[in-house]
Amino acid sequence: MKETPIGFTEYMIGALTILPWACVVWKAYPEKKTVRLVSGILIALTLGWISTEIITWLHPILWPETDFNPKKKVSMLTQTVHIAFIQAGIMEESVKILFLLFLTAALGYDYKEKKFQPQVVLFAAFIAMGFSLIENSLYIAREIPDKKIAIFIGRTIHSSNFHLLIDLCFALFMLKSNDKEKTDRITYLLLAFVLAVLQHGVVDFLLIPGATFGNWIATAMFVGIWVWIVRDWRIYVTAYLQERKTLIPASEYSSQSI
């Protein structure tokens, strides 16, 4: 199938779908935005864009379209589950989380204390938004003119939101794993990955049919995850950074912010 070209206008509209969430995360993060941190955010956005390119390239290889009729009929329910949990959930979260771990290893891990640092939440958020930017732009480019406003609202409220929530949730699990024993950390993060896939799959399963009831349940799920994230953010990001700032002498803290 020929890929739909994305023009400058679609990219601009796609950028608007992630702008509100980018502002929320940027303002909520209490640490000073250093050159190193901003560089990490820009790299994260780029990795999010690369994620969409990798998935677009892999998708026809892993699930090629066929012209023949299958011998065994597949139900609509089975197809939806496969698309939601396998094609979308496992595939997308595997690529995004892998990039998050690479970026964290470079810029967000304290090798001396062997702990993930709070900035991983920013990296996770902007990888998710870089992914949503390109994905939303593609959906907007494919839509007919009369429905572009509707697709813009839907991608802003649902798609950008849940990509952000899922990856923020995983990043917070990374921070929570700092309190785990060394032997338990890998298992803990693997379970966090499974949770990310399940969250993605359930949301897509509810939204793919386009039914109003499913949209409301998905929205309720967003609210629940937001409450969970805000609570953990206060503990593992805001409180941690405030405590660390009081423990570091003012002169040393100022030098670290350059």
From TrEMBL:
TM stretches of this protein: 12-29, 41-63, 83-108, 120-140, 152-175, 187-207, 213-230
Superkingdom to which the source organism belongs: Bacteria
Keywords recorded for this protein, A-Z: Hydrolase, Membrane, Metalloprotease, Protease, Transmembrane, Transmembrane helix
Protein's GO biological process: proteolysis
InterPro entries per record: PrsW
Pfam families, per database record: PrsW-protease
GO terms, molecular function: metallopeptidase activity
PANTHER family xref list: PROTEASE PRSW (PTHR36844:SF1)
Protein name: PrsW family intramembrane metalloprotease
